[in-house]
Amino acid sequence: MLLADPPSKPRPSAATYRRRRAVALGALVLAAVAVLGAAASVSGGEDVVASVSGGKTGVAGAAAAPRPGAVTIAWVGDITPGSAMGVPPGNGAAQFAGVRRRLRAADLTFGNLEGTYSVGGASKCAGGAGHTCFAFQAPPAHARALRKGGFDAVNLANNHAWDFGARGQAQTTRALRRARVAATGRPDEITVLRGGGLRVALLGFAAYPWAASLTDLAGVRSLVRRAAKKAEIVVVAMHAGAEGADQTHVPEGAEVAYGENRGDSRAFAHEAIDAGADLVVGSGPHVIRGVERYHGRLIAYSLGNFAGWNNFGMGGTLSESAILRVKLDADGTPISTHWIPIRLEGPGIPTIEHDGTSKRLVKQLSKQDFGRAAGIIPRT
User: Fold this and answer.
1) Which residues of 193-230 are buried (b: 16+ CB within 10 A; e: fewer)?
2) Which of 12, 137, 260, 315 is spaced 20 to 30 Å from 309 by Cα?
3) Is residue 220 part of a domain?
């Protein structure tokens, strides 16, 4: 349940709704004849299409395609696969074992991958880069842990996607393809998946040259509008904002961290929705931030850290996290939202939190930062 909206933009016109339905029907036809393989992202404005059912890629024809109606999207925050501090055992599977069932419950599960699945290469932290430099890397075979854990796609628009340069990112995208996990977030990239009988376009934005630009709002408008022509549902991920235990609020204006412009989260998210996005989700601050309802759509500014391995700061707000599950109808309107509270324990493993701290925190922050436009998270 959500608080009453502020004055909202008009619902899509009849012509727009007919277009979305037409695209949905076309998606069904394609789903019925496609033989699905790896979900490899393609840049240059092209979209990669894979089918997901119950959160997992399946073989077309194995079951009747669902009638277009609604899709459930799950989003989580920062995932670090490994570093010089070590990698999770079981080829990475230990990170998600305790939450796998919750991740697999959505039609499409999406998270922010902070780091690389690569070997060798020059680290960005080589040559005395300083104590604030961190480079994350795990063996390529560990990408399968994402798929086994329930992930359908990851966002690569963040400050750690280039930790080992172009070579590291190339190895990462190959590893993800082999694991059948889609990726998005590179410049001009639109990634389209099918779930719940609908096409879902995924976009990722950050303030780095290897990512779709968070700060170029004209470019944001253009890419989101193009995505809206390819799919009924558009989900935008942003990696934005200052970092730290005291950065739980969403300020007005741009944020700076470590000398970097980390973007104006509010302006970006509103621009994306005005251009046609149906859901905006965030990562980057390493702490939970509030949820806003804007023009009938949801913005989750940050879900904090989700999974690491001896690399995240822990304790207090830094250990609070969540799985956000949103059900959207065919025109992008949120039907229901669920905030599944998570706490990071041990080396950074997500576990289900039973005392409600995470949920109380997001409710408080949402009301403080957005007032009547706050997104209220219902009981689960």
Assistant:
1) bbbbbbbbbbbbbbbbebbbbbbebeebeebbebbbeb
2) 260
3) yes
